[in-house]
Amino acid sequence: MMVILLKAIMISGRTLGQGASCEAKMSPEFFKATSFCTLSEEDYRSLGISEEGNVLVRTKFGEVVVSAKKDEGLPPGVIFIPMGPWANAIVGPETGGCGTPQFKGVEAEVEGTKMPVKDVRELFADLKRTGGEAS
Amino acid sequence: MAEDVLCPFCGCLCDDIKVEVEEGHIVGVKRACKLGSSKIRGHERTKAPMVREGGELVETTYEEAYDRAARILKDAKRPLLYGWCSTVCETHKKGILLAEEVGGVIDSTATVCHGPSIIGIEEKGLAGSTLGQIKNRADLIVFWGANPAEAHPRHTQRYSSNSSGMFTPEGRKGRKVIVVDVRETRTAKNADKFLLIRPGTDYEVITALRMIVAGKGEIIPEMVAGVAKSDLEEAAEMMKAARFGAILFGLGMTHSRGRYKNVDNALSLVADLNGFTKFVVMAMRGHYNVAGFGQVCAWETGFPMAVDFSRGAPYFNPGETAACDLLAKREADAMMVVAADPVSNFPRAIVEGMAEIPVVQIDPFPNPTTLLADVVIPSAVCGVEAEGTAYRMDGLSLRMKKVIDSPYPTDEEIVQNILDRVRRLGDDN
Predict the structure, then answer these.
(1) Which CATH architecture does the domain made up of B46-112+288-425 adopt?
(2) Nearest residue to A56 (alpha-carbon basis) of A121, A18, A3, A105
(3) Domain B115-283 is in which class?
(4) Which of A2, A25, B215, B395 could join B367 via S-S bond, C-beta 3.0 to 4.6 A?
(5) Residue A29, domain CATH
(6) pLDDT digit string (tens) for B83-123?
(7) Which residue out of B109, B345, B357, B359 would a mutagenesis test of the A interface target, given it has the greatest number of A Cβ atoms within 10 Å?
(8) Tell me, what's the pLDDT at A134?
(9) CB contact, 8 Å: A88 with chain B?
């Protein structure tokens, strides 16, 4: 099957749902509020994904599976992921000499996927604790 | 019922919240937005202090947790003390003392938020105001890369576009609103003029506006960053025609390509506009007391964030001494996180740096930072269970109230306990 690949600029930012659940990050509410990506109607259709389907978003810094939603306010070619661990899986660490990483304006590729969205524990499960315990 | 409670969520620090308390528990919150109400009502808490043993976090006593935290900081060569946005200034003061004591680096969440704005402001200077002045006088509000409808839900009603004040009795009807953004946000839907710009072109658009304001519009091409010149000319005219204009900018400006230079340029636009009328500019600060850390740190050390004490005197060089830089370069060899969640909010590549070093977490709530922490110390929620001073986004200092008692110690008490132990450990190791 041919994979449809969308090139886009990814931005991350706050939403009401993200803010309302950001002190409860291990909760299902936070997962629901931050593990998705919004696309313009045109981009959403071009990917040929089913309603509430998942997308794989890939940048040169990493990749992440999130669910996809339409947002009529987005212009084609721009995708949005609420700030949080899913967005931060693919943003850039470079700080441009001012200490602040690249949270907005990251070049990304998006494609439909059948892979599931990882929950917050699964996202960090591969990080091995190598510090700390000796003390 | 507790009246006039301050909201411990965003930089608006709304001070008119009503909290209903029954038998020591919060049962209702009035007037707060969805964000504030959610925080004041409360979430799942970390129940007891924990330390990591055999890869698992196990409950322990506060005494043991303080000892472990002190030992981690004392043993480190380059400890990083990070966070501070969701706690009060009294904690900041102790944290800075602790950073100095251990010769570490102290940095706040501004570093992943309005940090570049602060640098831009230091470069250029700021024509500022209070939110009260904007409410009472501004007839033009420009939201640039800011979406208060989602991030500061009561801002427009209380302080800016939709508020009614002494010289702005008509509220929204008497004001003009311009929104500049890369997408049509809910805030943009409330605008008289919306400029949809391409991502990463803030600098170009600001420069074009400055040229038009300065009467040099003839050198501007017909399209700038996806915006028609005629739209820019109309926006520039609205700005010059205002009696009192305010640019309120968000992370859309300061996190986009150009970062602090975008802010520097926006401040210059405001300086230019002051040649024609009265214009002010303000960063839409995120957490309720991230601005307070900048204040305390500046008066204690001379710098607003990313302060390195390893040389014996405060040293500040974001890009070198900011939290993300230290972790990305694997320079920090221990980290204490207070009232923040860097594992969620830092890029993955930087979080990987945290996984390699001992991490101490002081926070009321479990979050992804807990997953990587070696010592977890639960604290009272400032503004609900502990009082203290916080700074609103316009620099106004306000006193946070304590509404209910808490079984948990305050952040201030916890940091003081760790500081006492670090001092007792002395220089003999």
Answers:
(1) 3-Layer(aba) Sandwich (3.40)
(2) A3
(3) alpha beta
(4) A25
(5) 2.40.40.20
(6) 999 999 999 999 999 999 999 999 999 999 999 999 999 99
(7) B345
(8) 45
(9) yes
